[in-house]
Write a structure and sequence with these properties.
The protein is mostly beta strands. The protein is 4% helix and 46% strand.
């Protein structure tokens, strides 16, 4: 059974940092690109970063560029999303998803790309 499990969420003050991880099992990660998405209450799910299958080439949404960094280690079946300089607007449930590699920008931007597998998400709350 293919699974993705996010962890590392929590509550942090504005300007703080969090490190999210996405641990995979049941499929060969090296053949999949990974998307990081978030969904705030009452809003559409949006892509924040999409990382290529076998290197760390990543597309970032403009809203997180320069603040978030994604990297992966296929041998450890894990992908990370480092969140720095967090803002209240970053508050959301963060998800990772896997799909065969494609144009990374197309995978991240609306309309929502058809990923093969999704995790259940981890909550990130940014408040004073």
């Amino acid at each position: 059974q293919s699974q993705l499990v996010e962890s590392g969420g929590g509550q942090v003050q504005p300007g703080g940092s969090l490190s999210l991880s996405c641990t995979t099992s049941g499929f060969s990660l090296e053949y999949y690109a990974i998307g990081w998405f978030r969904q705030a209450p009452g809003k559409e799910r949006e892509g924040v970063a999409c990382i290529n299958d076998r290197d760390n080439r990543t597309y970032y949404d403009d809203s997180v560029k320069g603040r978030f960094t994604s990297f992966r280690d296929n041998a450890k079946n894990t992908i990370w999303l480092q969140l720095n300089s967090l803002e209240p607007e970053d508050t959301a449930v963060y998800y990772c998803a896997a799909a065969p590699p494609d144009d990374l920008q197309a995978m991240c931007e609306p309309p929502l790309y058809e990923f093969d597998f999704w995790g259940r998400g981890t909550q990130v709350t940014v408040s004073a």
